[in-house]
């Protein structure tokens, strides 16, 4: 395994790009490969077995491309497939839930923590379990926001529709008055300004994906996997099972890239 | 290896207590064993081979006590012995230099980073190398502060002597005007108010030890080693090769503990 090998990122769609953006900022030397399973997004409502199978397919695709580390940049997939994937590959595998939960516990002043995510993530109880294992005394409010990922994937995350959907969905949380809110889906940071506006400025938003990059950085140090080569031809490649055009539109804007290599791929029977 | 096993911390003296303090805050469930090699402190002026040997002795002492993870809470020992110790034990071993360097790179706005440490740490060039490998463009100013650790070990860290020593030693750095200063010795956070006063409020101080606890937390998650048992009889034991009385005085004040178990031990031929 060479240090110049890329880090792999996988997500159900474009959400994991919020993790990639932070990775590009914190780890400018690293080569990056990304798979967004847009054709089968959202993962949220799917049964766990299916999410595990799809995650395994993305992982295998990237392993064949020679990645040195894998980031499951998707909360739904982390919730149900992280353990399974760790068992089957020999490279370090990092999920987004533990970093998000850890960061929320550090940030919370009143111990009133809310988590929003897909139906799959919320139903798995992963955040709640993780938070309570470490801090049984905190109160955790969990809310599934099934429409959010779809709004982002259809490139409507700045629209009036987005504002309406976010305001209506988060209404129950306003009564709970959490001091900290975990964005427990990597799609949600694209909705961040709207979410912050609805929750009010006193609620600290935790971007689980961005927090994950701290773990990636720690792991690169620990396993001595950093890429110290400054290469003008740095690799940053994106693969999608859906429309490369739509993916490119969202990714270019979000990552502020004028040109972006996006390639269509087939995974399994999709 | 059980999750209830303690985490081991080793240092040349009381400096590592600054790491323990942060660990107690962030990881309240964890049992802690600490060795301070006060009798042979400071490590700074000693040859590398000797520091490696002393570090190995402390490590073996704690391995026999059944620790699940080792934190080399000493910059001098991390600089010269981390790789060696990692090779010889089967538990995860974490040093303080990579977390400190990583955090400084995140914090620095102007890329003007200063590092202060013992003669041994500065002579090893560890921080400079680590910073430049990741960010060749930053300017690094390194300054050995051979008297600082001794001032702390003799419990004079709030005295007029401390103020004078710090002001005189740091004088050359004032001309360099670093935007970020790494406290590259775990003793230095006890001198933090004085150091901040000398450097001015615009210089961001990085406590490499406290940053290390983030790595400890990440590693506990990654290796599934967290202790989730809430135990009223939590273990927190301190061993020193020097005077338990002096150790207890400094530790009790620094950690705000009224009672503290400190035991005298012999290591090697000291």
- CATH fold node name of the largest domain in chain A: Rossmann fold
Across the major sheet of chain A, the strand order is 4-3-1-2-9-10
The assembly state of the depicted protein chains is homodimer
What proportion strand of chain A?
15-25%
Return the structural class of chain A.
Answer: alpha/beta
Largest sheet of chain A: 6 strands, parallel
How many structural domains can be distinguished in the coordinates of chain A?
A: 2
| Spans where pLDDT lies below 50 across 5 or more residues of chain A | none
Number of helices of chain A: 11
Shape of chain A: globular
| N- to C-terminal distance of chain A | 31 Å
Strand segment count of chain A: 10
Gyration radius of chain A, in Å: 18 Å
Mean pLDDT of chain A: 93
Order of helices and strands of chain A: EHEHEHEHEHHEHHEHEHEHE
Would you identify the CATH architecture of the largest domain in chain A?
3-Layer(aba) Sandwich
Q: Could you name the CATH class of the largest domain in chain A?
A: Alpha Beta
**Biggest protein-protein interface?**
A-B, 21 and 21 residues
Helix content of chain A: 40-55%
Organism (chains A, B): Enterococcus florum
EC number (chains A, B): 5.1.1.3
Function (chains A, B): Provides the (R)-glutamate required for cell wall biosynthesis.
InterPro entries (chains A, B): Asp/Glu/hydantoin_racemase, Asp/Glu_race, Asp/Glu_racemase_AS_1, Asp/Glu_racemase_AS_2, Glu_race
